[in-house]
Amino acid sequence: GGMSPLSLATPEGFFAVVYFQIHGKLSTGLSETKKKLFRPDSVRGRVVEIGSGFGDNFLFFAENGINASFTAVEPNSHMMPRLRERVDESGLSVSLIAATAEGAGGLIAGGSVDVVVSTLTLCSVTSLESALDNIYTWLKPGGKLLFIEHLPAIQGSPYRTMQALIEPLWCACGGGCHLLRDSLQHLRLIQGFSVGEVRDVEWSDGKKEPG
């Protein structure tokens, strides 16, 4: 189903309406990257997804043979009905927590999680430090954070200047997304996290090449 126009009355609702229009194309565009990062051998055991949105990843998991015990952490109440539909459609075992990544600390037991998954969520949490602290606490020793994230453009580049100019409006309208936030650098500076393989995102519009 679609989103009610009444949702536009709040910032969270406005973002949900906008994201509803683009999330399908976004998910398709990231599909090749997801296939390389989110694999049956890497997403298993007890898995927490922060910022589940409309639940696109759960359909992806189901379609790609990934079956784990999932917990979805999503704060936007306007997205929750669609998220529940997607969870049901996926047939996966998913429990839902209505909270932010930084506010869900005590709702998930420390040292109980094998994998935390994040797709374009670290850019929008209110406190990246608090969110990463929770993730570190939740993970078992040797647990993994698998994430897809955009990073700021190179310092001094025209694109970086443009990002700086539009960030305040972008953040207000885009669910708190910070264009200049370098989540990867934050991770590298936090004691306890060991940053493994980093790859540039591959974008595909989902169209088949001719031939």
From TrEMBL:
Q: Sorted alphabetically, which InterPro entries does this protein's record hold? A: Methyltransf_11 (IPR013216), SAM-dependent_MTases_sf (IPR029063), Thiol_S-MT (IPR052356)
Where are its TM segments located?
Answer: none
Instruction: Tell me the CDD domains matching this sequence.
Output: AdoMet_MTases (cd02440)
Check the record and name the Pfam families matching this protein. Methyltransf_11
Annotated GO MF terms = S-adenosylmethionine-dependent methyltransferase activity
**Methyltransferase type domain ranges (all copies):** 48-147
Q: What is this protein called?
A: Methyltransferase type 11 domain-containing protein
* Record organism: Hemiselmis andersenii (Cryptophyte alga)
